[in-house]
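Why run this: before we spend reagent on co-expression, it is cheaper to look at a predicted model of the complex and decide which construct boundaries make sense. The entries below are exactly what would go into the expression plan.
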Amino acid sequence: MSGIRAHPVAVFLAFFAVFPFLVPYKALATQVLIYGLFALGFNLLYGYTGLLSFGHAAYFGLGAYGAGIALAKLGVPSVWGGVAVGLALASAGGAVIGFLCLRRRGIYFAMLTLAFAQLLYFIGFHLADLTGGDDGLRGIPLLPVRLPGVEISLDTPVAFYYFTFALVALAVAALKRILDSPFGAVLGAIRENSDRAAACGYDITRIKLLSFVFSSAFAGLAGALEALRLTVVPIESLYWTTSGQVVMMTLLGGAGTFFGPFVGAATFLVLEDRLSIVTESWPLVIGLIFMAFVLFLPKGIWGTLSGGLYGR
Amino acid sequence: MVDISLATLLTQVFTGLVLGMIFVLLAVGLSLIFGLMTVVNFAHGSFFMLGAYFGFFLLGLTGNFWLSLVVAPLMVGVFGLIVERLLVRPLYGRSVDDPLLLTFGLSLVLIEAARLIWGKIGVTFDPPRELAQAVNLGFTMFPVYRLFVIGVTGAVLLALWFFLGRTDLGLIIRAGSRDPLMVRALGIDLGRIRLLVFGIGTLLAGLAGVLAGPMRGVYAEMGVTIVIESFVVIVVGGMGSLAGAVLAGVMIGEVVSLTTLVAPKLAEIMVFVVMAIVLLVRPSGLLGEAGLLE
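The model came back. Tokens follow.
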């Protein structure tokens, strides 16, 4: 365990380099990476900063629609351009909504994030010319990735997996950098006791907002990748169920732990995959499991296994 | 700009008032539960949905609307008592986020359970014959049932105001919201008060569900959007303020109804625009006290 804790990024790279060969099909592996990244973004805000957002679908959806609209409607000629637009849109959305939500503390925050996500859902629903409305945004081309000197097609599941892997690995390294910085230490201080952090002279509203924007950016990148993977953006990307999904994934895995989001995303997606074969009512089963975790195993799978040294 | 006659406008004002009544019933329950036990009950919308389905079920069983109007909310309230006892109580003393997470899981479970029991397609729930007509208000014919909803909500609010403001138990509830430690020090068993308040709050949600059923249809997800809008009502009105919840509930109802008149697509969006404006101008809500219950 101590090795994992000392070099989490290296462990991430080693494990996910071989991951697609450990699961029944490659698409599932890619999904785990994408939703793991989404949960990683959520976890930065909830697990490390102590702010429970119930509206993270907003930033996932903004990332997905940003990339999708850039590629399908605006004719942006490169994958990088699409991803960049998604990332920018999600970060900008995070900055505006975060600013408004952070005007209220405590439990209002969760309600406000949920409300603003619902607002974006309705906007996406009614702006059908741009977003495809209820039918979802269709016709996103899967362009080849251009790097200096090479051009890689993403047509095969394996190629797409490693493209995703590269971007998610960068995000994981960025998260590690954020957590190790003095800024990361202040986040922990805010989570433990925000009044005391404020008394120490930190501008906690600004720091929380910055954490919110980082978190939205990670979620937006995940959304952009999901848009590329599906070549479609369903309207559900912005729906409250998507917000709920990332909350459940993070808590199942272990909030406030480095690998918890990926463990949780894998657990959730495998459960969904298996259960949906057996019963249409799989959300009922997942809901019950989630409630049991909140009641009896609040540290989640990874948090419990690793002894919960990071705390919650 | 569409030409809007005064009669149409007045009709929409009345429609908005009816919608506002449903918001008020939900928001008051949410606010009571939150005030006394800092529990944000995400499943409130599911209790609302259960109220509508219980009402539908009882109406089918007995054919008596008045009976379902009384019994269905009671059933929801009893279910609320069980939920508080078994699921919410173990979480007191833990992070304020935990009950929200738990009730979120519960709402998923209840929505799926409703789909399993009553099917994926919604059911229709007819108002009783006595209330099915329309009455001439002078400017328009207005459904009697909707006036009835306004009347019932008004009566319930009056009773609640009396209970909270004029009885000993109400005094304890108000004191418990303000300073639970002191109330406990005075030898009052706050556990039983919390149970009672959770029961009352969910009962009100169930009542809102029965009342809304004949107007909005009954389906498993019927509580989701409306509970989010009720959160907005609380934020706008100011948490912990009964008058604030009533004022904001009616206001949001009117905003939805009047926007529908000019630009139907914007109706759902305007709710959140109002919320954003209130947050910018008056973060503590219209009648909320700054810093209370944060």
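DSSP finds eleven helices and two strands in chain B. Chain B touches chain A through 47 residues (CB under 8 Å). Bring this page to Monday's planning discussion.
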